[in-house]
Design a protein that fits this description.
transmembrane helix; about 0% strand; 2 helices; single chain; elongated; 2 domains
Amino acid sequence: MGRLLLAATGAGLVVAAYVVLLYGFFIWIWPVLPDWAMLIAFVLIAAAVIGSPIMALKYYGTVRSAARRARGDHTEDDRR
């Protein structure tokens, strides 16, 4: 239970830091950026927001597959 609480607290702190940094960026830095920099920043933020869940799911799938192989649970797809 202690490890779960520690992991949940850590994840909450990371999310809070992410929100605070984005808020600060959009309140103080975004208004002074030139148009070309806004476009680049928008594309980078969109790629991060869209790409981070995809990469997390990819990692989760890899870890899950490795755990299955370690246990010896093989499906037809794994035996190819």
